[in-house]
Amino acid sequence: MIGFYILIFVLGVSFGSFLNALEWRLNKEISLTKGTSKCPKCEEKIKWYDNIPLVSFFILKSKCRNCKKSISWQYPLVELWMGLIFIFVFCHHNVYQNLILGNTDMLPFIDYIIFIKDLIIVWILTFIFVYDLKYMEVSDLVTLGGAGILFIISLFTNADWVSMLIGVAIGGGFFLIQFLISKGKWIGGGDVRIGVLMGVILGWKLLLLALWIAYVVGAIVGIILLLFRKKKMKSEVPFGVFLTLATFVVMFWGQIFLDWYMGFVSL
Ligand SMILES: [Zn+2]
After folding, report:
1. Is the pLDDT of residue 236 over 80?
2. What does pTM read for this prediction?
């Protein structure tokens, strides 16, 4: 059992490593198929043994072997997060009990598709979170491409695609209206794309909950930044960070909250 989870962890870490590489290459507009990994500071090619996810960072004491300049903490943090979150998703779907032990209440095929879809979603959300935080940009490829792929996958599950389409209309429309009214001053065009993606992931009910959480958390963080760092009103923390965070929380725990809330109102 421990061997199984180590395997899953390593798998997650590898996807985290791929995420880091893709972010770097996407931002620098370097083709994914072209060339090997290089140090961003001195451009020296990185040897394979210095390019082992999670491990090399600590062996090298977070410094490039060639130029001794520091390597960003983003690399091990994203890799560690993806490793842990893969284990979480596997546990969430009881994959070990059902797939490996072959319990009698074996998951139907649809459940496996939903499970793989969840892995893709957490990867996409992490990608958007880190990219928006680091570069203050949102990648069309990952948001709209991801939304398209997830929508197609959902057609093979028992997902409520009507709710998803309404979610896309609300999520995209909500930000598009703000974007048009403010001529792009309140929010970026990237938030419109994230809104569309959120609609596909959550459907319209959970989308509304996620938007609410994103705005509340965003406001609290904004106020804290204003108080402690005396920043101007114009937020320096990109909103995509809060949107992806809220989507992550709501996709796993939103339904529990909605059920509780509905029970609460109907009392
Ligand atoms: Zn270097």
Report:
1. no
2. 0.91
